[in-house]
Amino acid sequence: MRIAELVARHRFRLTRGEAPEPGPGEVQARVVAVGVCGSDLHNFSEGSVGDTPSAYPMVLGHEPAGVITKLGAGVRGIAPGDRVMLEPAIYCYHCEYCLSGRHNVCARLRFMSQPNDPGYFRDYVTVPAANAVPIPEGMDFDYATLFEPLAVALHSMKFARPGLGETAAVFGAGPIGLLTIACLRLAGVSRIFAIEPVEARRELARAAGAADAVNPRRDDPRRAILEATGGRGVDLAIDCVAREGTIDHCLHVVRNAGRAVVTGIPPEARVTLDYHVMRRKEVHLYTVRRSNHETSAAVELLRSHLSLFAPIVTHRRPLEEIQQAFEQVEAYAGGVGKMVIRLAE
Questions:
Q1: How far apart are CA 269 and CA 201, in angstroms?
Q2: What residues make up the domain containing 242?
Q3: Which of 86, 110, 118, 318 suits a disulfide with 90, CB 3.0-4.6 Å?
Q4: Residues 238/198/205/317 CA torsion (nearest 10 deg)
């Protein structure tokens, strides 16, 4: 089978290997499509994700959709030929965090696409049968790849707690930011500000539900939002980029006793905060760790509101062009929103 390995910063190579065989309780799947995530780009561009260094060679990709090809012993309720989304997180189900329902912070968490746990930029994978989630009838594989980042956006909603008629600011209109804007719109938020320097992504943000799209290269987002809200600020702010001071921007634009949520991953190991702004306003600051039991809701939202989410997928490239695909995403070139790598038709 084909395998795309990241072998150094900014460099992929295509190699070949044996397809893995499913063990008891596992399934083998042929990967058809995989979305390119921001954390994939961190590995490609920076050689790390936050304080976790890349370990080359490594196989990235954790937003996959594919087709079941083989069953391991004891697997029931699924069959070869079934179209599935493939959960990238593998939990132990026995630690105190799993037992209390906090699987996303499992003490023995494995996440496919991290060092020592190859991801989905390869033709075949094996996963626990529970990680194979049926794709809704008629949904294209490319759109099915949105289930994983949409689950992350939904997880952030647990902390943001958007209410009907509230106002929100979203920093960054990459795929996670766009999905977050769409979720806020569906939650009944009355006015959403999107802060994004790339013009094409500001247009995508408006299509997803943002009423105002601020270019931070031209306008100070703090001043723009505070002026637009009469100095009060927004009820909640979500940082989907976590760079160039955006966490501090959240603290400044949110109202007194508002909520600030950080979904993005800062490139630095340490960040500084305008602490006294946060203290005086008693801002509630939350961080997001992937998702936790939101997959079913994400699949249902994709099924019932696909026309809202589908425009986020703007580009597709075959596996043989993965180098060019990542270079395009890194450069924000060609109006790219979500890039999908296609491994099969």
A1: 27
A2: 151-287
A3: 110
A4: -110
Q: Looking at the structure, do residues 299 and 275 belong to the same domain, yes or no?
A: no
Sign of CA pseudo-dihedral 263, 51, 122, 130: negative
Q: Are 115 and 58 in contact (CB under 8 A)?
A: yes
Give the per-residue pLDDT at 287. 97
Domain CATH number, residue 76: 3.90.180.10
**Ranges of the chain whose pLDDT falls below 50:** none
Dump strand ranges (E) for the chain.
2-8, 11-16, 26-35, 48-49, 52-53, 64-71, 83-86, 89-90, 110-111, 124-128, 132-134, 167-171, 191-195, 212-214, 234-239, 254-262, 284-287, 313-318, 338-342
Read off the CATH number of the domain in which 161 is found. Answer: 3.40.50.720
- Residue 272 one-letter amino acid: T
Looking at the 3D structure of the chain, how many domains does it have?
Answer: 2
- In the chain, the amino acid numbered 66 is G
Is the model's pTM score more than 0.90? yes
Same-domain pairing of 19 and 41: yes
pLDDT of residue 274: 95
What are the angstrom distances between the C-alpha of 23 and each of 28, 71, 73, 134, 290? 9, 8, 7, 20, 27
Q: Could you report the per-residue pLDDT of 196-244, keeping only the tens digit for each?
A: 999 999 999 999 999 999 999 999 999 999 999 999 999 999 999 999 8
Res 120: pLDDT:
98
